[in-house]
Automatic annotation (TrEMBL):
Family matches, as PANTHER family: METHYLTRANSFERASE, METHYLTRANSFERASE TYPE 11 DOMAIN-CONTAINING PROTEIN
Alphabetically ordered keywords of this record: Methyltransferase, Transferase
Organism: Paractinoplanes ferrugineus
GO MF annotation list: S-adenosylmethionine-dependent methyltransferase activity
Biological-process GO terms, alphabetical: methylation
Matching InterPro entries: 23S_rRNA_MeTrnsfrase_RlmA (IPR052939), Methyltransf_11 (IPR013216), SAM-dependent_MTases_sf (IPR029063)
CDD domains: AdoMet_MTases
One of the Pfam families matching this protein, by short name: Methyltransf_11
Gene3D superfamilies: Vaccinia Virus protein VP39 (3.40.50.150)
Name listed for the protein in its UniProt record: Methyltransferase type 11
Keyword Signal annotated: no
Domain of life from the UniProt record: Bacteria
Domain Methyltransferase type: 52-139
Amino acid sequence: MKSFAELVAEGQSVPVEGWDFSWFAGRATEQRPSWGYARLMGDRMARAGRALDLQTGGGEVLAGIPGAPPTLVATEGWSPNAALARERLAALSGRVVEVDENDDLPFEDGSFDLVVSRHPATSRWSEVARVLAPGGTYFSQQVGAGSVRELTDFMMGSQPVSPVRDPERARIAAIEAGLTVVDLRSEALRMEFFDVAAVIVFLRKVIWTVPDFTVAAYSDRLAALHTQISEHGPFVAHSQRFLIEANKPV
């Protein structure tokens, strides 16, 4: 078994660009939502004419669609991820536009008949509605309120759960933007971390779990977590996910 120092060094050395989680194989697990976002999104892409993927990350999920629409555009706000997405989406003739997640979208009104997004950091519902053509669809899997709160609380102490990511709040925001919500589902999904290196990589990658995380700042909590895993087995948390689909009226 690796020592705490060895695991910490390993956790700090792993690249965290993009949304490829293959490194975690054998180090951590996360239950998948029952609805199968990638498959459902791919089905909708196959029927679309002009599609937009918001906050695509490194383009990992979008690159897996079985067929691309004639017009395929993705946005990403972090330059290293945007560069990865350009490489991945080149085979689909996809165009990647760098735009911050909080900025207005640089597209004309009604530019797309399908807008998708997996785990957006923010949802600009008014902008989604604006760039959707009448009859168009927004399809998104999002992180729900209190996701991985067990890990957040272990590292930071008990934290209040923000209502910002509540699924019902998303429904209301979509309706207020002029969209019609046709599907809304949510699930809590079991996660297990088998060593502290996996926790470090996760916290470096999913930065909103512990917003000010650094190994130096949280060395004591990481040591306590290492001891707990060594003595009691995997650290268990639960991710929160919801699926929302909304249409723009004709």
